[in-house]
Amino acid sequence: MTKKQRAAIVINELEKLYPTVPIPLDHTDPFTLLVAVALSAQTTDRKVNQITPALFAVAETPFKMQNLEISEIKDLIKEIGLANQKAKNLKRMAELLVERHDGEVPQTFEELEALPGVGHKTASVVMSQAFGVPAFPVDTHIHRLMTLWKLTSGKNVQETERDAKKIFPRELWNKLHLQIIFYGREYSPARGKREGDFITKMLNL
């Protein structure tokens, strides 16, 4: 079976499973999505969704976020990992959004990645999910499954993203990366039983 054939099976089966895919992180606009994605590093989406309501109740805009003390932000996000650094990043991010972008979330990768705590993956999520720009954010689920399905030989998420963009049609990127994440969580967890991972079995892997 060729790589293209395997990719076609993956696309077909994921579309059957997840014809519609919700965005896992709760948000109301590009700024709250940006904050939620930045907070999700080394933390589960579920945990982020538990703590963001209290944060957004007092700082749902860059203007309000910049007025909080770092200690106040930290207190609101203390249950997630790396809270100290994330609190500093959120305050500085908000300040820069106000100073450079009139309080709006920029719509280019370069400007997003210039913000504190915003790497390429975070920028890709915001570009794809907030602005509809084709992107393929790669997390550990996607990297692991793409490797398992022999769709990449990438040694890191950057190489896996490159391969994903080559093999999957551009118009599917924004939906497909979420479908793979949902599949990984439901059928092929990194730890635990993977008996339900039928796509891998279909690919004879």
Describe, in plain words, how this protein is organized in 3D.
Its cofactor is [4Fe-4S] cluster. Pfam families: HHH, HhH-GPD. Keywords: 4Fe-4S, DNA damage, DNA repair, DNA-binding, Endonuclease, Glycosidase, Hydrolase, Iron, Iron-sulfur, Lyase, Metal-binding, Nuclease. This is Endonuclease III. The protein is mostly helical. The protein folds into 2 domains: 3-22 and 135-202, Orthogonal Bundle (Endonuclease Iii, domain 2); 30-131, Endonuclease III, domain 1, CATH 1.10.340. The chain is built from 12 helices and no strands. It has helices at residues 3-17, 30-39, 45-58, 62-66, 70-77, 83-101, 109-113, 120-131, 140-148, 157-167, 173-187, 198-202. Helix 1 crosses helix 11 (173-187), helix 2 (30-39) runs antiparallel to helix 8 and helix 5 (70-77) crosses helix 6 (83-101). The protein starts with a helix and ends with a helix.
